[in-house]
Amino acid sequence: MGTPLEPREAQVDEVLERLYEEYPDSTISLNYSNRLELLIAVILSAQCTDERVNKVCADLFETYETPEEYANAPQEEMAEAIDSITYYNNKASYIRSACADIAEKHDGEVPDTMSDLTDLAGVGRKTANVVLQHGHDIVEGIVVDTHVQRLTRRLAITEEESPKRIEEDLLDIVPEEDWQQFTHLMIDHGRATCTAINPDCTDCVLADLCPSTKPDADVDLASGEEW
């Protein structure tokens, strides 16, 4: 079982240093060519793999281009276009509604503020953070997805449980210049090694820092349950 560094800032710094070395090309894995495509891809990515989203969006982005085209597409048509995505009916409705607001309230441009973005259907703080960071080069928060949520708890970086509270906690201890890359590094490590069900602790560059390391640790701090 690993031992996290104290204070938590030291743990974060060491985790970042090792993951930067392990994943030097870490970046967003969604495919897009403009802000609208980014927004739609991120809406679709909720509880769905980026690989699946990229496959669906390859056709979707050829069919629709402007916010008006998405907004005016019939619900059944949009749902059918994304029907291999989780919760496709709801997401089709979100996309149509969000694009209607973009066309009518924002002159056809994807908003560049957290408040305007989160007013759009299907857009929470996580989605808005991604769009701000990668669409507008505005970094004012940390994207907390399932990988970030899992790894930060396993590594004893936070004890918070909800994405909102985790983000608030991380903003105090992660250097501001690392806010964007922190998420990408956590995602890459979560996919490659620190998976949800059966993490590969024997081949983990963070094992000596992780109090959740199998088989020595009795409990997975991410879930609070026994391994």
TrEMBL record:
A Pfam family: EndIII_4Fe-2S
Keywords for this protein: 4Fe-4S, DNA damage, DNA repair, DNA-binding, Endonuclease, Glycosidase, Hydrolase, Iron, Iron-sulfur, Lyase, Metal-binding, Nuclease
Transmembrane annotation, as ranges: none
Gene Ontology BP term (one): base-excision repair, AP site formation
GO function term, MF aspect, one: 4 iron, 4 sulfur cluster binding
Enzyme class label: lyase
Entry EC number(s): 4.2.99.18
Binding positions for [4Fe-4S] cluster per the UniProt entry: 194, 201, 204, 210
SUPFAM superfamilies (alphabetical): DNA-glycosylase
Catalytic activity: 2'-deoxyribonucleotide-(2'-deoxyribose 5'-phosphate)-2'-deoxyribonucleotide-DNA = a 3'-end 2'-deoxyribonucleotide-(2,3-dehydro-2,3-deoxyribose 5'-phosphate)-DNA + a 5'-end 5'-phospho-2'-deoxyribonucleoside-DNA + H(+); Hydrolyzes mismatched double-stranded DNA and polynucleotides, releasing free thymine
Domain of life: Archaea
Residue ranges of domain HhH-GPD in the record: 44-192
Cofactor(s) essential for the protein: [4Fe-4S] cluster
Record text on cofactor binding: Binds 1 [4Fe-4S] cluster.
UniProt function note: DNA repair enzyme that has both DNA N-glycosylase activity and AP-lyase activity. The DNA N-glycosylase activity releases various damaged pyrimidines from DNA by cleaving the N-glycosidic bond, leaving an AP (apurinic/apyrimidinic) site. The AP-lyase activity cleaves the phosphodiester bond 3' to the AP site by a beta-elimination, leaving a 3'-terminal unsaturated sugar and a product with a terminal 5'-phosphate.
UniProt xrefs under HAMAP family: Nth
Family listed: Belongs to the Nth/MutY family.
Protein name: Endonuclease III
Source organism: Halorubrum alkaliphilum
Gene of this entry: nth
